[in-house]
Amino acid sequence: MSECFLRLERVSKRFEPRLSLGDRIAARLGATVETRSVHAVDEVSLAVARGETLGLVGESGCGKSTLGRIAAGIIAPSQGEVTLDGEPVMSEGRKRSTRIQMVFQDPFASLDPRMRVGEIIAEGPLYHGLVPAVGARSYVARWMERVGLHAEQAERFPHQFSGGQRQRIAVARALAMQPDVLVCDEPVASLDVSIQAQIINLFLELRRDLAITCIFISHDLSVVRHLADRIAVMYLGRIVEIGPRDVLYEQPEHPYARALLDSVPRLVTRTGTRVEFRTIAGEIPSPLEPPAGCRFNPRCPFASADCRIRPPGLMARHVGGGEVACYHPLGEDGQPLRECVG
Amino acid sequence: MSGMLLEIENLHTHFLTRAGVVQAVNGVSFTLARGEILGLVGESGSGKTVTGFSILGLIDPPGRIVEGSVRLDGLELTSLDQEGLRQVRGKRISMVFQDPMMTLNPVLSIGEQMLLAVRAHERITRRAGLERAAAVLTRVGIPEAATRLSAYPHQFSGGMRQRVAIAIALLHRPEVIIADEPTTALDVSIQAQILHEVRELARESGTALIWISHDLATVSSLADRLIVMYAGRVVEQGPVAEVLSDPRHPYTDGLLASLPANARPGEVLRQIPGNTPSLLDLPEGCAFAPRCARASTICATAPQLTHSGPRSWRCHHPLGAGA
Amino acid sequence: MSGFMEQLRAFWVEFRESGIAVAALFVIALILVLALLAPVIAPQDPYDLTGLSLRDARRPPGHVGSAGYMHLLGTDAQGRDLFSAILYGLRISIQMGLAAGLAALLLGASVGLAAAYFGGRFETFAMRIVDLQLSFPAILLALILVALLGQGKAQLIAALVAAQYAYFARTAYGAAKAERRKDYIEAAVATPLSDKRILFRHLLPNCMPPLIVVATVQIANSIALEATLSFLGLGLPVTEPSLGMLISNGFQYMMSGRYWISVYPGVALIILIVAINLVGDQIRDQFNPRLRR
Question: What SS3 string covers chain B?
């Protein structure tokens, strides 16, 4: 079934503090040593269909990058499993699959500065025998032209390219592995607006021509809306709402998803418009001490006693499909559909 | 012109590097009225940050203001010595940086450094200084300000640190605050809080604000007037809503078309081809010409500024009604 | 290779701007040539004991000896021509310094890189030992090792390596720890490439700049350390006098006015070490992004 092409099955990632020898001795002697672990990702399940683009949005510290790295097989989950077409992406703590590749945020850090662009793109395919050594040059040329670069630039080094061109190189490197899935972690966040549009267009083109499955991670809601078919909103390590793009943008049911969408500044082009900045009260709590129950409850205007005790699981949204993890999902007017009790 | 608080005329700031002369700011002129919020937008390398730093004389070698004048209420800032600039900085013009740790000292408590900032320009008792600090922190939305004076910067979140930096900028009720990408590093929900507070504060105290950003949406919801910079020059300037709804310069138009928010989801964006030019060897004429669909042979000569009412632009082939 | 040559040329253009560093590099080159051509230049083979005559012992600089040539820098207690002895001594010092320095680089870089990349228990264990060693004077460690291993070139190099690899390990570890977090390493993990390939094709080349800086300083230190050991009589055998031994041999005559036996080898040693350090300083400055324009 195509529904289960890429599956994340209750994956969690805890970062345990690494205790030094001194800390361990101090702990033995009864001193208070920080031993709490950070739940960067907390029992997240996701399924991405073949050819689909799933957008992953949330603010810093929500775990979206960690989740992306788990999906790409860079980080082994503390619990749970990632499977592609039924096969595990990692086994014995190592990534085995080449069918899932990643594009990173900062194209100035993601390319080895001491390698030529041609070598960077050819390295993986050569290593995995996707292309014979004699054919490497033309193979690289093909992918470079595919992402809008000139084949003769293969002899250059990354520092001789601009940010946008480097991001194209990074995309070519990922595509040259002939992946089925591309995980993109904020691929346009560090680019200028005019260059951002070029890269967004490149992704649109690739998705159309290669029918690639994609997880697109971004804090920029307008970019995700432009590219994704379905969108998941994360808050403090959990998915709070997931659904088809238009439905989620037009009628978010989770109070956090709604507040997040409301706080994005919009382009004002009418004279005399006074913009109200709608804000979310308070700050994102430390992931070291996430609140009990629903993690959004301390900042949520609709939180009830239930919300403070038992974390809500994902349940079907009221309209338009998708799921929401909330006891008091919002209606169109931004008010809870059900009475708040307690 | 006489009523203007800040007048910048023909400012040229260059960096003399090993590779050559980087013309970061290349003949920028604009004015700022009392209490006005001015948005300064552009992409990286447009010279927007260097312009902001030049106003306060914060350009370090190998950079230098090679030409032009910056006048604050008639006082020429470019000819002031370090002591003269010190009297102005923080007192009449203050600055908020993208990274609040540019302002904050990690080894001093918030109260201590705010006290230092107060005493830099005023003789005041410790007690009165701290009271003032607490009052300003409260104004920027920090709860229980008085008790948090003894905290250190690392005990604050990124958003709170930026609030403290803004509070320090507000201490002496300056006439101008220059804010360089102050919310770029922050999450959208925190950004919304800060935008809200900054606008209220500016309105209340009548402080003029130069808000430097690459984000058109943020600037559009905050500023009264907009300046668009490209390759060290002002290419377009005018009331914010007018410029954004009816741009004259093809670059402004291209920027707006590049925004996914302005397109239908999944639609191919109208992108600006090519890259921003190197500031080391700028083209002779219009710097945008190599990327511009409207460019013609005349664009090989530098276009002059065209004025029309409150708006002005620098283009041989402007878009819209003015063409 | 053209990319590498380009980088090298750019490096040289910047290097050339420092007059002192260029002069120091010239001095090093001169010393290398002199040391390499010692058998040709030196009027006497100081290792050939039959060629020595005690009649020429302890003669001041400028003395014309029994063999009929002038002793430019005088002679030592065995009647060796000091100029010749210094040339041969430089040869040995440079040999030992380079061999020990490069071997320490290889060992230290491997330990540091592996610790940073694999992490876990190996990291804790290896770096704890390195830290322990860094807190312990290198000279003391070398002394103990020489005492245990005995005399000889190989033993001395082993002692020098053991005393100095820790600096390289520390440097490589720090650099690799910083590089490890960069996205290009994650990209290699995501491909996926083997650990070996990531370590040697990606991590190591990007950790080289700080290692090269430490290497120049450590080669100078190796030379100084070897000289110290030889001075204390724990270095090379008497038949192959290095600079340290020459200084030591002349030491007892210092107070009797025959300064040259100790002072000239000492001056040669100082010039060599200072020159290497000056070049090392310039390289460090050029690699330091904070000092870059």
Answer: CCCCCEEEEEEEEEEEECCEEEEEEEEEEEEECCCCEEEEECCCCCCHHHHHHHHCCCCCCCEEEEEEEEEECCEECCCCCHHHHHHHECCCEEEECCCHHHCCCCCCCHHHHHHHHHHCCCCCCHHHHHHHHHHHHHHCCCCCHHHHCCCCHHHCCHHHHHHHHHHHHHCCCCCEEEEECCCCCCCHHHHHHHHHHHHHHHHHHCCEEEEEECCHHHHHHHCCEEEEEECCEEEEEEEHHHHHHCCCCHHHHHHHHHCHHHCCCCCCCCCCCCCCCCCCCCCCCCCCHHHCCCCCHHHHCCCCCEEECCEEECCCCCCCCCC
Cβ contact C190–A110 (<8 Å): no
Query: Of C128, C186, C206, which is closest to A104 when you measure between CB atoms?
Result: C186
pLDDT digits 0-9 by tens, C91-114:
888 888 899 999 999 999 999 999
Considering the domain architecture, whether residues A264 and A325 belong to the same structural domain is answered as yes
When divided into structural domains, chain A yields a total of: 3
C184 at interface of A, judged by CB pairs closer than 8 A? yes
Evaluate whether residue A298 is within a structural domain.
Answer: yes
What is the arithmetic mean of pLDDT over A154-158? 90
pLDDT score recorded for residue C286: 82
Residue numbers of the domain that contains A312 = 254-342
Residues A78 and A214 in one domain: yes
pTM: 0.85
* Distance separating alpha carbons of residues B202 and A199, to the nearest angstrom: 37
Mutate to test the interface with C, among A18, A75, A106, A112 (most CBs of C within 10 A): A112
Mark whether A1 and A89 lie in a shared domain. yes
For residue A87, give the CATH number of its domain: 3.40.50.300
User: Per residue in A34-84, pLDDT tens?
Assistant: 667 788 899 999 999 999 999 999 988 889 999 999 999 999 999 999 999
In a domain, A126, yes or no: yes
Mean pLDDT confidence for A114-131: 93
Give CA–CA dist C18/B90, Å, rounded. Answer: 40
Q: Is the same domain home to A296 and A337?
A: yes
DSSP A327: S
pLDDT at C215 > cutoff 70: yes
Confidence of residue C293 (pLDDT cuts 50, 70, 90): very low
Are A189 and A81 part of one and the same domain? yes
Tokens linked to B311: 């708006």
SS3 C47: coil
Q: Please check whether residue A140 lies inside any domain of the structure.
A: yes
- Residue from the list A96, A104, A113 with its beta carbon closest to the beta carbon of C187: A104
Answer yes or no: is A10 within a domain. yes
Check A201 against B215: CB less than 8 A apart: no
**Do residues A131 and A222 both lie within one domain?**
no
Write the burial class of residue A316 (CB in 10 Å: 0-12 exposed, 13-18 middle, 19+ buried). Answer: exposed
Longest dimension (CA), chain C: 76
Quick: pLDDT tens for B55-107: 998 888 888 899 999 999 989 998 888 899 988 998 899 999 988 888 899 99
Pairwise CB contact (< 8 Å): C184 & A110? yes
| Other chains touching A, judged by 3 or more CB pairs under 8 Å | B, C
Partners of residue A270 in chain B, C-beta under 8 Å: 241, 245
Give ipTM to 2 decimals: 0.86
What residues 152-191 of chain A have any CB closer than 8 A to a CB of chain C? 155, 157, 170, 173, 177
Answer yes or no: do C193 and A127 touch at CB < 8 A: yes
Whether residues A189 and A93 share a domain: the answer is yes
Are both A74 and A130 inside the same structural domain? Answer: no
CATH for C2-291? 1.10.3720.10
Domains delineated in chain B: 6-92+176-182+202-313 (3.40.50.300), 99-171 (no CATH)
